Amino acid sequence: MAGNRRGFSQEAFKVAKGPVTLCPCLDSKNGSYKTKHVMEEHLCRFRHGEQAPHRISEPAQQNCDGMMMDMLNDLAMWFEFNLEEDNQPPPKVQEFYRLLEAGDEKMHDHTEKTVLDTVSRLMAIKSKHNISNSCSNDITELVFEVIPSDHKLPKKLYFAKKMMAGLGMKYEKIDVCPSNCMLFWRKNDKLSTCRHCGKSRYIQVKNEAGENVDTTVPAKQLRYIPIIPRLKRLFLSMKIAKSIRWHKERRRGSQNEDVMVHPADGDAWKALDEFDPEFARDPRSV
Question: Helix (H, G, I), strand (E, B), or coil: what is residue 204?
């Protein structure tokens, strides 16, 4: 039986254009992408009549993890359909495939939590509580000492960030005036002092003569998160894309037309539609 299972997976991955392909088990039903070893586990489990394992976690987090995997599966389908035959996936696609594998790989043999679940939660906790990089690494080292030695947890924050980079959700650092007067951005990118208050863009230190000199370290920065890549990621998820277009494609059914069920029913939204009809015509416009 094991040989048949491995033989099937080998044949399936001969035509796959990456490290994942659609899984035909009763749980996935050719609707989600799995790695080779996960597909073999699924086929074996359902062959013997076992049910899919349930993760033991808080409902909110379980729902969040499920939504993440749904989006990754939708993204995997998009990536695969855009690959040309006999070509290696580009680096960004390879990063994504590694992320998808982490979504199926268990942290260790004594838990149902996956590597992606664990790393994403650790990164979220770091951001929520403003934990420094060194503190995050110290916490990870402690976790290393108390979990089984066969775990797959990244050793340092650097490797965790590298894994999550497969999502393509990057941000830009922009230097800011220490007094928040302006951004050193676009046409002001080359300036070294604020045009309004005259303060230096960089941290200053005193030299041997007691004079203030600029370093190369920005005095203040903001992190700009581009909206377009995030919208693209949202629209690559079939479920989320349907919800985003609902304001245009919605079906009220028996609901009263005078009842406001979405901001699109408000006067402000309607005024914007009248201001730019071409923009309003596309249901993807948000």
Answer: strand
